[in-house]
């Protein structure tokens, strides 16, 4: 469960996110969309405790990220838009290191399964330095899944992945949701968001423009037909603010 209540984030005098409230229940996948500078990454970074909120409450699996950061982070998997790996560690060493950090005992079987699911088995002993961008992304996702988080936050999860990788990650995300994880995906890939997400939050200039189930939001703006209804709805929902951010 993810709960955000009256969240505001200011960087000095600039308000990046203003009075944002939403929840993501177990099994739900929330698509977080909005133009560049809307406040998506700021929201995800605050939810995982990288930056503090200016005001409001954010909790992960009932743990307040400010008051109980360790408990909150134990339940959390975060995949940033530019995952950083250790150049001098192999793929397997990343998984072992993550298992140690999260105190996952007997991690080997889960780690093998993740390598298999993401087509990384033959790269098990390869240094991160020698992986392609897409492979690095998949290692970061495998590490984030290893401790079986009940809350997962993705910032542009498919950057750099090939079509097979995209399919594998989509399947993995659906499986995690079916197993009861609450998931947020921030992405500009509206087709991905529409295909995967059960709920939608449209953010623009730091404010919530729409929040609800995918069909509620699309119905709200009169775009329930056709194959690219989210794309059409997105432009309707954000058109007033298209000039808002340079
Ligand atoms: N550390 C910072 N200091 C000052 N302003 C910041 C900082 N980080 C982000 N901002 C500003 O906050 C606003 C929201 O940025 P954020 O990165 O959250 O947007 P975003 O929706 O993730 O954008 P994008 O789609 O481009 O990734 C932007 O105007 C950005 O310039």
TrEMBL record:
Pfam family, one: ABC_tran
InterPro entries, per database record: AAA+_ATPase, ABC_transporter-like_ATP-bd, P-loop_NTPase
PROSITE patterns named among the record's database cross-references: ABC_TRANSPORTER_2
Molecular function as annotated in GO: ATP binding; ATP hydrolysis activity
SMART domains the record matches: AAA
Keywords: ATP-binding, Nucleotide-binding, Transport
CDD domains with a match to the protein in the record: ABC_DR_subfamily_A (cd03230)
Gene3D superfamilies: P-loop containing nucleotide triphosphate hydrolases
ABC transporter domain boundaries: 2-230
SUPFAM superfamilies reported for this sequence: P-loop containing nucleoside triphosphate hydrolases (SSF52540)
Similarity comment: family membership: Belongs to the ABC transporter superfamily.
Protein name from the UniProt record: ABC transporter ATP-binding protein
């Amino acid at each position: 469960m993810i709960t955000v209540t009256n969240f505001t984030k200011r960087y000095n005098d600039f308000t990046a996110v203003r009075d944002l409230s939403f929840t993501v229940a177990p099994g739900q996948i929330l698509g977080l969309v909005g133009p560049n500078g809307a406040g998506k990454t700021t929201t995800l970074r605050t939810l995982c405790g990288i930056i503090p909120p200016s005001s409001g409450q954010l909790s992960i699996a009932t743990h307040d990220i400010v008051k109980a950061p360790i408990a909150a982070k134990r339940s959390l998997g975060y995949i940033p838009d530019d995952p950083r790996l250790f150049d001098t560690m192999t793929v397997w060493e990343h998984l072992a290191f993550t298992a140690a950090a999260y105190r996952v005992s007997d991690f080997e079987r889960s780690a093998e399964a993740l390598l298999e699911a993401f087509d990384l088995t033959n790269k098990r002993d390869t240094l991160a330095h020698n992986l392609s961008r897409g492979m690095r992304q998949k290692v970061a996702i495998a590490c984030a899944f290893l401790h079986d988080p009940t809350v997962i936050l993705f910032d542009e999860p498919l950057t750099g992945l090939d079509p097979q990788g995209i399919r594998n990650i989509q399947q993995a995300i659906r499986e995690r949701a079916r197993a009861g994880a609450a998931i947020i995906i921030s992405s500009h890939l509206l087709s991905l968001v529409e295909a995967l997400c059960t709920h939608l939050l449209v953010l623009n200039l730091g404010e919530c423009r729409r929040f609800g189930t995918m069909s509620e939001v699309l119905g709200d703006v009169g775009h329930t037909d056709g194959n690219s209804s989210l794309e059409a709805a997105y432009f309707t929902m954000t058109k007033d603010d298209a000039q808002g951010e340079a």
